[in-house]
Amino acid sequence: MKITQLIDFLKDVPLFNHLNNNDLEQIANICSERFFEKGKIIFYEEDLGTSFYIIVSGQVKIVMVSNEGKEHILGLLKERDFFGEISLLDGEPRSATAIALEDTETITITRDDFTRLLRSNPDISLKIMFTLCKRLRKADKQVESLAFLSAQGRVARVILDLADERGEEKDNKIVIYHRMTRQELANIAGTSRETLTRVLMDFNDNKIINIGKNRIEILDKKRLKEQIF
Ligand code: CMP
To answer: Is the dihedral of CA 8, 12, 15, 16 positive or negative?
Structure first.
């Protein structure tokens, strides 16, 4: 990417959108570009944290993997989201594994530059804290789901969360476009793939949602909310 393109991109990143062109140029000068093919591991949980990442295009899933290879998805990150901040801030190893869900372009900032950036720009630190709070609230909700909700309730909540994050209103429906497999959706909901499929089909047959390829349509949001128990 040319420096001017990079500055234009940075302007649109919520973390930096309060900065002037001069500041943005300084940040552009400390960024490197890294590309990850679909399915590539960006880093593993327990790796040493060396860089901060911002997604330019594509999608990244943040996962924890059990000893038996079972994957639990903690978060799905898209264009302009950041990740990799925790280990840079607390000096511990990576808290989770990051995997490219699609071909993904990122820009990275080294640990030393990241620390310098936060020291000189308190507003960036505040914005990072704001995002960390949002992610913590979501993680708390996930714990609540796993501890207290039925499989049906967990699937309903995952669909409603996806709708909040990326749903598009169309003809009285909320359409969620996604690139996830059934197994990946099950990994977010904390169910088996078979259970997820059974619940989705049940919602589909009861006209609460409509399932399509790479698409879930919410037909009746109120009834979907009522499935959370
Ligand atoms: P770090 O610990 O350096 O490496 C793993 C990254 O995953 C972490 O920084 C965060 O950026 C991100 N991450 C960890 N937990 C979550 C979560 N629950 N939701 C979204 N992102 C997360």
So the answer is: positive
pLDDT digits (tens, 9 = 90+) for 123-137: 999 999 999 999 999
What's this model's pTM, rounded to 2 decimal places?
0.89
Q: Beta strands 82-83 and 51-57: pairing type?
A: antiparallel
Q: Is the CB of 85 under 6 A from ligand 1?
A: yes
Residue type, 159: I
Ligand 1 centroid to 84 CA: how many Å? 6
Contact 193, 199 (CB under 8 A): no
> In 3-state terms, what secondary structure has residue 108?
strand
- Residue 113 CB contacts under 8 Å (≥ 6 apart), including other chains: 30
Smallest CA separation from ligand 1 atom 11, residue: 83
Evaluate: CB of 128 within 6 angstroms of ligand 1.
no
CB 94 within 8 A of CB 51: no
**Atom 6 in ligand 1: residue holding the nearest Cα:** 84
